[in-house]
Design brief:
The complex is a heterodimer of chains A (about 550) and B (about 675). In chain A, about 65% of the residues lie in helices and about 0% in strands. By secondary structure, chain A is mainly alpha-helical. Chain B is an alpha+beta fold and about 675 residues long. In chain B, the strands form four sheets. A seven-stranded mixed sheet of chain B has the order 10-22-21-20-11-18-19, with helices on both faces. The chains are: A mainly alpha (about 550), B alpha+beta (about 675).
Chain lengths: ~550, ~675
């Protein structure tokens, strides 16, 4: 089977798989967050946490819960990481240095999973399973909770209450993430992903001995993709055969990456009572993914002359078992979903391919974005679109029956401003430092792209790396940790405040004079606004990095 | 007040006030333009300390960008100033004849009048302040504020009691109780509104400003961080170029035109003789989804057309017909003309009044009109009670029944009587019927396409109301409506999240006018109604509600269209400036120079010039407003996206290229 056929088949299989679960899974999630009944085990958790699961929270209280919970998570994870030698299964590894520990703790709590360390040589099994994997679940559940709160803001009328964070967190973890991750892990094990608690020493052919690191990989791999986390058990991430051994595991992992972000659009449509609204958002996301896949695949697959092909030109940095198509597809999905897991090294992509995955993140992680973060991100962009386009139909803007007034616009404007500001300030500061060129693996435009990529990945909570760049200096550890922290929680606070203000409003009924937000025209407009805002913000940076490189 | 085409001379005439607006304290109100002002200052300093043709050209055009923005605002304000001046003339100092506590008249200056004072105004005198007529009836010339030369009747009590300071009494004598303090009169408020002195940013303008400011901050960051990036790339950029890039990127077009669009929106209302008390009300008009329209005078002509002659017992149909015709020959009201038309249609002679006959006009006192013949015979027509009083006895039961039947059907009975040597008797009744105004059916269909529901309000019984509602094509009706019913309807609509617009003139309309999102008070109405509404229609034409909604929509569309245009423009500017900046470091970027601009300097200068000139080019559009077509939101959006979105992307490519062709000939740049 040729590379092209295999690639197209993979895409087709992925689309069919997602299409078949879209409706039932999306509706299931909607039920999870609207059903008043609690499970017995959940009630026990609420008692343990000391919360009343039937009490509603205001936007302020919901926000404090999110922030408080995340702060506790960072502290706990930080403690585990720097003190891991005190835990069982520590593989005799020392604790992380403080700056790497802080960076990693923030990284996993913010669902970024940026890794400035190599997993197999830095962490014991307890830290991986009890620290990182736990956050893989919880940070994903927090993202979903925030998205659900925003959707409730649209649904509710004259209330100002957004549900209960603890209920959303517990249900998201127990009813959505755990069961799916469990099934995913079993399927991965069937493909040969390892699940054990020991390293193995083997005799090499020339008589030496080599330690093959093992560990509870499948259980972590499954949630790593499902929760769009992306932090690999091994340094090579999903390019490592123990994490991603076969074409089927590769397909399964891509399916897990897309499952929740895509299905959340169905949940949105079901919860707001307009299935078409979910579809138009999905349409916009799909267009962005498809365009990105097309460009990246074209750039990667065509980047070789006949002679180059013989020498394996564009294969450098890619897993031979996946080839260019599967590598390009994965790269687009992982950057489009804020997962950041890689099955190839993005640094080795062609300038156009690498530039496209970079742009994927710059879009603000909305194609289709991380679990929860993607849907609230694109809803913010939809509000922005409605604001500009809505005026053009001669009414003050409204979306899903809610008016976009001064207050709402303030939160949206700050949201749209926050992440690009973090990236630009981060890159500007880093590039002005004399030490930075030494950290780059390459000179010129490519080296510049590495820095831009690092901050874009961190601030957008993606976590994938362009590789090449060395980020273990205290400056990068702290600067990137800050970018991750602020890039996660400033938007979350703004989204929740916005949700509260939307929930307080009454509902405006739709008339023929209302701008319809569930049509292909609106989806197209949404894509246009996302591309325009991203393009205008990052054009200079892109021109000096990937563009300069691609055009030469 | 004609819509003058924007000419160079209007622009030039406003140049001085545009220059006055360069004061940073004024510019601070528009953060985008304030940034440009700072940029102009910086580039000027650079041009002085390190002079070059390039620096001076950039600095000059940045200043022009600010001035053009000010010019837009000045021109918009200037259009109102002319009207304000004519209003001021009406406010000239008048002497008031105040009745003091002892009931004695005394002369005081108009400016000394306080609320509650009573003044006497007689024919030929100017009313010294706003108030209500508490005594007498008079015809008043209100042309100073309405532009309408036909006098109007103002009388004590009822819904026609309000008079406006500055208007002139033409006949009779009235006593007016002053209701507003000097400086706060209707004319004073009008002047302030028209001049934009009390203009505050509307909620939507603030929301849009927030968006513009945040875009400005993003671009500021993009440009500031570009400096270290450029240094790293080995292509250090001068402050001059970075400032030029920043000014090109921030949304200067909409930033410069935003306040002009708002002022022009108010001005468009003034042009149709509607005064909005706030910009907020104009915006709300665009959002209105339910229109409450009074049947009479808005949807129908009122009971104005004769449809049938109903003779009294013992009177032939011809007798009544001819008497009615003769009494209406001199009557130029629509009712009078329709009676003549009907009579002719039923076979009456088309003859003039006999010699010596004198027509008697309708007066506020008699409430009848008619004709006095030379032989002493007189004919009168009017409302039943007035005619009965004139005849001097009760109406016959037959006539009484006809009157009730006509009224019961929603029509108006007009009783005709004659008096001669044999005494007076009632001849019969003319049935005046409601007729739906021409073009209303189409307008309601238009409104429906725009997603606006129309509700007809009428005092008629449900049966009559239903038939007229059907004929007019309104969506719903409220029959036998009391003011309380109106309020209930408004609250019901608003609870469902709809914005309601209505008109009203009576004191009992005041609560509903205040509750409605857009309450248009008729100028002929009471001061309570005018106080309660947020708009006043000087022509007292309730049909205008529909125009008001369109003007509100047009205002919002113009704002949205120019914002889209402004942001879309940036694409071309990037393609002009970025390759120019980094051509030396990365020659490969020349392939981004798709406009093939001559040199880096000419590319930057061309973008800056385009950025400034587009403001001037769009001033007429900002003042006139984007053309509004009644259509569904989706099709309006499609069209505007195509014109202002796609057009906004393409236009600057063409514009910058053309400017570059000229600029590149300048030595030191080309």
């Amino acid at each position: 089977m040729s590379d092209t056929t295999a690639g197209l088949l993979t895409i087709a299989a992925l689309v069919i798989l997602l299409a078949s679960v879209y409706v039932p899974f999306g509706d299931y999630m909607a039920r999870v967050f609207t059903n008043p009944k609690h499970w017995g085990v959940e009630k026990r958790v609420y008692r343990l946490l000391g919360v009343n699961p039937d009490a509603e929270q205001t936007a302020r209280s919901y926000t404090y819960s999110v922030l408080g919970f995340s702060l506790v998570s960072v502290v706990a994870l930080f403690a585990i990481l720097i003190g891991q030698q005190a835990l069982p299964f520590d593989r005799d590894l020392p604790g992380m240095p403080w700056d790497m520990g802080l960076n990693t703790a923030i990284s996993f709590v913010t669902n970024t999973n940026w890794q400035s360390y190599g997993g197999e040589s830095t962490l014991g099994f307890s830290a991986q399973m009890g620290g990182l994997a736990v956050q893989n679940f919880l940070s994903a559940a927090v993202g979903i909770a925030v998205a659900v709160a925003l959707i409730r803001g649209f649904v509710r009328s004259r209330s100002g209450e957004l549900g209960n964070f603890w209920v959303d967190l517990v249900r998201g973890t127990l009813r959505i993430l755990l069961p799916v991750a469990f099934i995913g892990a079993i399927l991965l094990i069937s493909q040969g992903v390892i699940q054990n608690f020991a390293d193995h020493t083997v005799q090499t052919i020339n008589g030496g001995s080599q330690v093959i690191p093992g560990g509870p990989v499948a259980s972590q791999e499954s949630i790593k993709e499902l929760g769009t986390n992306g932090g690999g058990f091994f340094n090579a991430n999903s390019a490592h055969p123990f994490e991603n051994p076969s074409p089927f595991s590769n397909l399964l992992e891509m399916f897990l990456i897309l499952l929740i972000p895509i299905s959340l659009t169905r949940m949105l449509g079901t919860m707001v009572g307009s299935r078409k609204q979910g579809l138009s958002i999905l349409g916009a996301m799909t267009f962005l993914i498809a365009a990105s896949v097309t460009i990246t695949t074209w750039a990667e697959a065509s980047a070789r002359s006949q002679a180059g092909k013989l020498a394996g030109a564009a294969m450098e940095g890619k897993e031979t078992q996946f080839g260019e198509w599967a590598s390009a597809l994965w790269a687009v999905l992982t950057t489009g979903t804020s997962t950041g897991a890689v099955n190839s090294m993005h640094d080795s992509f062609t300038p156009t391919g690498g530039g496209t995955v970079l742009v994927n993140m710059m879009l603000g992680e909305v194609s289709p974005g991380g679990v929860g973060a993607g849907i609230y991100g694109i809803l913010i962009m939809a509000i922005l679109t409605v604001f500009i386009a809505g005026l053009m139909v001669g009414r003050t803007p409204e979306i899903l029956g809610k008016k976009i007034g001064t207050k709402e616009m303030t939160y949206v404007a700050l949201y749209v401003l926050s992440v690009p500001a973090l990236i630009l300030i981060g890159v500007g500061t880093a590039i002005a430092l004399n030490s930075t060129p030494d950290a780059m693996a390459n000179p010129g435009g490519h080296g510049f792209s590495e820095v831009v990529y690092a901050f874009t990945s961190a601030a957008n909570n993606n976590g994938s790396a362009f590789a090449g760049i060395t980020v273990t200096s205290t400056f990068f550890q702290i600067a990137l940790a800050l970018a991750m922290l602020l890039g996660r929680f400033i938007p979350i606070v703004l989204v929740l405040t916005l949700a509260g203000s939307l929930a307080k409003q009454g509902k405006v009924p739709a008339t023929a004079g209302t701008l319809p937000t569930h049509t292909p025209l609106f989806a197209g407009l949404l894509v246009g606004v996302i591309l325009l805002i991203t393009g205008l913000t990052f054009f200079p940076a892109l021109a000096l990095g990937p563009l300069a490189e691609a055009l030469s | 007040m004609k819509d003058t085409a924007m000419t160079l001379s209007t622009l030039l005439s406003q140049l001085p006030s545009a220059l006055r607006k360069l004061d940073p304290r004024h510019l601070w109100r528009s953060p985008v333009m304030f940034i440009v002002w700072i940029g102009s200052m910086m580039t000027t300093v650079i041009a002085i300390t390190d002079p070059s043709v390039f620096a001076w050209v950039v600095a000059m055009w940045l200043w022009l960008t600010v001035i053009f923005g000010n010019l837009a605002e000045a021109v918009a304000e200037g259009r109102g100033k002319a009207q304000a001046a004519s209003l001021r003339a009406a406010r000239t100092d008048v002497t008031a004849r105040r009745i003091n506590a002892a009931g004695v008249e005394e002369s005081v200056a108009g400016t000394q009048l306080r609320k509650g004072d009573r003044v006497v105004v007689e024919a030929g005198e100017t009313i010294p302040g706003d108030g209500d007529v508490v005594e007498g009836v008079a015809s008043v010339d209100e042309s100073a504020i309405t532009g309408e030369s036909a006098p109007v009747i103002r009388e004590a009590g009822g819904d026609r009691s309000a008079v406006t300071g500055g208007t002139k009494v033409l006949s009779d004598r009235i006593v007016v109780q002053i209701t507003s303090a000097p400086g706060e009169t209707f004319i004073d408020r009008m002047i302030a509104l028209i001049e934009g002195a009390t203009r505050r940013k509307t909620p939507n303008e603030i929301a849009l400003s927030i968006l513009l400011v945040s875009l400005t901050i993003v671009f500021l960051l993009a440009v500031v961080t570009l400096r270290p990036m450029a240094d790293y790339a080995g292509a250090p950029q001068s402050t001059l170029v970075l400032v030029a890039l920043l000014v090109c990127l921030i949304p200067t077009t909409i930033g410069a035109l935003l306040s002009a669009i708002g002022i022009a929106g108010m001005d468009r209302l003034v042009r149709v003789n509607v005064l909005a008390m706030s910009g907020r009300a104009v915006e709300a008009a665009g959002d209105v989804s339910t229109l409450l329209l009074d049947k009479t005078g808005t949807i129908t002509y009122g009971n104005r057309r004769a449809s049938e002659f109903v003779p009294a017992e013992g009177v032939t149909a011809d007798q009544l017909r001819d008497a009615a015709r003769l009494s209406s020959l001199a009557d130029q009201t629509p009712e009078g003309r329709s009676i003549v038309e009907l009579a002719l249609a039923e076979g009456a002679d088309d003859s003039d009044l006999p010699v010596g006959a004198e027509s008697v006009e309708f007066t506020a006192q008699t409430r009848m009109s008619g004709v006095d013949f030379a032989d002493g015979r007189t004919v009168r027509k009017g409302a039943g009670s007035s005619v009965a009083a004139w005849v001097g006895r009760e109406m016959d039961p037959g006539v009484r029944m006809s009157i009730d039947a006509i009224a019961g059907n929603g029509g108006t009975p007009l009783v005709v009587a004659e008096s001669d040597a044999n005494g007076s008797k009632v001849l019969g009744v003319v049935h005046l019927k409601d007729v739906v105004k021409e073009g209303m059916v189409e307008r309601f269909a238009e409104l429906r396409r725009m997603g606006i529901r129309t509700v007809m309000i009428t005092g008629d019984n449900p049966l009559t109301a239903a038939s007229i509602a059907k004929e007019a094509g309104v969506d719903d009706f409220l029959a036998e409506a009391t003011p309380e019913d109106k309020m209930r309807l408004i609250h019901k609509e608003q609870e469902g999240g709809r914005l309601v617009a209505m008109t009203g003139d009576g004191t009992n309309d005041a609560p509903a006018l205040a509750a409605a999102d857009v309450g248009v008070a008729m100028n002929s109405g009471t001061s309570a109604a005018k106080e309660a509404g947020n708009m006043v229609d000087l022509d007292s034409d309730p049909t205008k509600l529909i125009d008001i909604v369109e003007i509100g929509k047009q205002l919002l569309i113009t704002r949205g269209a120019l914002t889209t245009f402004s942001i879309a423009n940036d694409v071309a500017k990037y393609f002009a400036i970025i390759p120019a900046m980094f051509l030396v470091a990365y020659p490969s970027l020349d392939s981004l120079n798709i406009m093939q601009l001559a040199t880096p300097k000419s590319a930057i200068v061309s973008a800056v010039i385009f950025n400034a000139l587009i403001i001037v080019a769009l001033i007429p559009l900002a003042l006139r407003g984007v053309k509004f077509r009644a259509a569904s939101a989706e099709s309006v959006l499609r069209r505007n996206i195509l014109v202002y979105g796609l057009g906004g992307v393409i236009a600057p490519f063409v514009g910058i290229k053309l400017i570059d062709l000229v600029v590149s000939t300048i030595p030191g740049i080309g």
